[in-house]
Amino acid sequence: MEDRDMEEMERMETVPMGSGSKEQLFEKGHPVIRELKRIPEIIFEEQIAMLPSSAIPVKSLFARKQMDHYHVDSLILKKIAMQVLHILRQLSECHIYPGIIDLQDLYVDMNNSQYGVVLLHPEKFQLLTFEQDYEWYPEDERIFGDAVLFDEKMQQIADNRLIYKILVASARGNVKVKKIKTEADYSELFYNILSEEWKQIFERRELCSYEKLQQLLEDSIQIEEEFARMTKESLDEKSEQKKQEKTEQFQIKKENEGEEEQFALFVILRTELDNSKKISKMLYLLQDELELENTLLGHSCQQAFVFGNGAVQVKKFQRYHKDFRCQFPQVIREYSAGEALIIGTDLLQEKKEELLLKNKGEKQQFYLYILMDGRIKNDQLFQIALTKLKKVREEGVELKLRMVDNIYCEACQKLKDVVEDTQRCC
Predict the structure, then answer these.
(1) Are 25 and 32 in contact (CB under 8 A)?
(2) I need a labelling partner for 94 at 20 to 30 A (CA). Which of 39, 115, 230, 239 fits?
């Protein structure tokens, strides 16, 4: 009798499929909707306002600026994929096949160390006999043809492709199709660092179970976390050793030389016009090194900066406060490397002449740091700059060339011939 009553209640709460609509499923609380509401990561319309401000669409995360801003690496992508897989598994266990999930509807909390993910807009899902509320399939989803309703196998295919897109940071499914550019600048990079097991799965379009995907992700995350830990320990050990060696060198130098005033000029030859990350990191490391040296030696130091944004700009020599770091805008306009070098050498000579007129008797040391993040033009202005660099070198200025990567160009080679101290930085 009790069982019969329960069945009758369930029947009364169920919307008849013959005359119902998807809207009625939500309005009247059909059992399939109650199943969705039991999944905490499924966010309904009335809950969207409760999302933290740090939650952003996964699709927007794949833009280059966002990648740089959040320092997204393959480990972060795998953690996001793991969270997404958790949602997909819960839907599968409920025998709910939502169809193609838009990366725009997946939100990730970038302030959460586990990168918690939620899925919005369940009203778009395929539910029971109601197809997805998509007017069209994205071009790269034509694999599904003209299918109206997804079954269990089709859903697995769609979910496999979704995990693939996350791991290579691309909203497109055809990342490996030759000569086709992807939405994310880093897609090829992320693909190349995948393990061979992952690559074989994606290249063969192998259909993986949720269990296998989870195991692969868990193994990959564990390996990368262990590698990251070992790398950090190694870097910390080397950094401490280097710091100790420098301290000893500086103590000896201090005893032998006494107080000295330093003048460090940084000439920034930036070619990454929409990304300041590399050049900023290089400059910060050099400023860190300079600050440590002067602290240990008890020397005073003035810094100056020559950089560009359409036109060449200058920050003249002055003593900056401890921990000062020169900031650059993320996006700039192209400027002349030759002009920047000319202005930099002129600035140094002006400072030397100024000190000479003041009859400064203290020991002084001049450094000219040239920072590069890409190829520069070997034009007429650059040729003039080379002559000026040779002259200031002969006058006792130490020239130092620092590059983000090994850069091969005619102008770069000529710089290396003039500058004795050339290093790859970062």
Answers:
(1) yes
(2) 115
Pairwise CA distance, residues 414 & 104, whole Å:
48
Q: Are strands 421-424 and 398-403 parallel, antiparallel or unpaired?
A: parallel
Q: Which long-range contacts (C-beta less than 8 Å, at least 24 apart) are formed by 83-86? A: 83/41, 83/108, 83/114, 83/115, 83/116, 83/117, 84/58, 84/117, 84/162, 84/163, 84/166, 85/159, 85/163, 85/210, 85/213, 85/214, 85/217, 86/41, 86/117
pLDDT in tens, 208-245: 999 999 999 999 999 888 877 776 666 666 666 666 66
Q: Is the pTM of this model over 0.70?
A: no
Nearest CA among 283, 314, 320 for reference residue 301: 320
Compute and round to an integer the Cα radius of gyration of the chain: 30
Phi, psi torsion values for 344, nearest 5 degrees: -65, -50
Q: Regarding beta strands 260-269 and 398-403, do their DSSP bridges make them parallel or antiparallel, or are they unpaired? A: unpaired
Q: Closest Cα partner for 122 from 136, 106, 139, 138?
A: 106
pLDDT digits (tens, 9 = 90+) for 17-66: 445 788 999 988 899 999 999 999 999 999 999 998 889 999 999 888 88
- Domains of the chain as residue ranges with CATH: 39-224 (1.10.510.10), 259-424 (3.40.50.410)
* Nearest residue to 25 (alpha-carbon basis) of 135, 113, 119, 127: 127
